[in-house]
Structure to design on (190 residues):
């Protein structure tokens, strides 16, 4: 049972670590278009992201596929920036839950998972399968915590300040985009 908690806690810490805030930025920019009345589609998106993240860890762990870490370290902030731009472009629209967005979210999960793959492979050197699942459960819980706190914050601000939904999406997405630019420049792989 202690091995379960080790990997579960590692998954929690991977997402909740303020030093690696790129994961949080992606979740925030993913969640900003949602509110309490549309929390179910958001949780589906978060789970799809976790599935992508876990798939790339699986591929990396079993040496099925490896991706150059230099490119991954650049693609992670690129995925965040592209999601922020998408939000800014579509802030006026009340977008329905769609397959294309789910596919993109899965792909971004793959990218983010490859970013953690090297470290994960060092601690799971026997290539056991269950630690991967335990780690994924920790990631999922941490992501749900982040998006729920973000929805609470957004809801509270809406009632206190009375902001417009479109403005909220654009402001948060622009701030996240601005925070991502230095990472893009710093991690340019060429």
């Amino acid at each position: 049972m202690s091995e379960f908690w080790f990997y579960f806690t590692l998954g929690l810490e991977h997402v909740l670590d303020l030093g690696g805030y790129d994961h949080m930025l992606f979740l925030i920019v993913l969640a900003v278009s949602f509110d309490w009345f549309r929390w179910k589609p958001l949780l589906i998106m978060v789970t799809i992201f976790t599935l992508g993240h876990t798939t790339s860890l699986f591929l990396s762990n079993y040496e099925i596929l490896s991706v150059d870490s230099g490119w991954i370290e650049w693609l992670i902030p690129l995925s965040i920036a592209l999601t922020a731009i998408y939000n800014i472009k579509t802030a006026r629209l009340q977008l329905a839950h769609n397959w294309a967005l789910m596919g993109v979210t899965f792909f971004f999960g793959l990218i983010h998972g490859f970013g953690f793959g090297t470290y994960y492979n060092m601690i799971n050197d026997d290539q056991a399968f269950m630690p991967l699942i335990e780690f994924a459960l920790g990631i999922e819980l941490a992501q749900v915590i982040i998006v729920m706190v973000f929805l609470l914050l957004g809801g509270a601000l809406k009632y206190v300040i009375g902001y417009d939904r479109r403005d909220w999406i654009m402001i948060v997405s622009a701030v996240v985009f601005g925070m991502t630019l230095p990472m893009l420049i710093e991690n340019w792989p060429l």
